[in-house]
């Protein structure tokens, strides 16, 4: 079979092009592995953890089989295991004892996340501890900032987020990760951290975060479902792509060290554009709904859970993500060993 013209245009005209058998390099495992373009490693993963008050608490999240709300003593044990599996980092979400209008526990130095960070850094010092910086888990209304009337107020909220990030850094967090999508939060956080000599604490910003239905199970886990309204006045419209580049650029200008796209699977095109455009360390959040769908279908015997998990994680990396936040981190790391 002689091609008149190669589809990809490498050859203009070939009189005697050999029969190109692309299957030759797929015939056995050894060849397939030699030419594999994307390789997953436990080093790619960041494992999300939910910390709750109390002792000996290990409560499975109804909509996320295999994911638990953990008290600090249990989180520390979990972190030992995570480190042993070769996963370099965790990201912490806190569920406080009390919620109020302004999310006070979020920026309390004795808040649940601040205490958890101290405990983990003491027992597992080599594990990178990242903290999610947001108010939605701490406010009585479940919004990510201060609410007045039906407006989620931007500028006052970012001051609180900066305060929250500072208390995380003071507790020993290695990196902070603002997930609110308010304007100017990265600058506000960078400024406050620098003023307090945390100029070496990096910021991983949820830079292109979409208003997504895929966060449903997380809101069960973090008890952060908004009591009224939604997050569309700050999170991005799923229909937009150019706007994601403006969001990411803005965060880089304000001082973000790692930029994140979230969710991952429905936004692989965005991950690729962000990576190609900025060449920044790029993270992608394989979110709760993406996890739960695979778990549910796997449990029903409709798909091969492990195989689909590895395919999904590989595709996120192939799209351009250097780091993947995923509830599958431990399962995938075990398979990769
Ligand atoms: C906000 C936050 C959310 C997630 C991470 N940080 C939820 C939201 O924006 O409503 C979602 C993560 C997931 O779905 O796994 N603090």
Give the topology, please:
Elements: H1 29-34, E1 45-51, E2 58-61, E3 64-70, H2 72-84, E4 89-94, H3 112-123, E5 128-133, E6 146-148, E7 151-153, H4 154-171, E8 175-178, H5 185-195, E9 204-209, H6 216-222, H7 242-254, E10 258-262, H8 268-278, E11 282-286, H9 288-299, H10 305-318, E12 323-326, H11 329-336
Parallel strand pairs: 1-3, 1-4, 1-12, 4-5, 5-8, 9-10, 10-11, 11-12
Antiparallel strand pairs: 2-3, 6-7
Helix pairs in contact: 2-3, 3-4, 4-5, 7-8, 9-10
The structure holds ligand PBG.
Give a structural overview.
The protein has a single domain, classed as Alpha-Beta Barrel (TIM Barrel), CATH 3.20.20.70. Helix 3 links the parallel strand 4 and strand 5. It is an alpha/beta fold. The strands form 2 sheets. Strands 1, 2, 3, 4, 5, 8, 9, 10, 11 and 12 form a 10-stranded mixed sheet that branches. The radius of gyration is 22 Å and the shape is globular. 44% of the residues are buried. The mean pLDDT is 95. Helices cover 37% and strands 18% of the residues. The chain contains 11 helices and 12 strands. The structure holds ligand PBG.
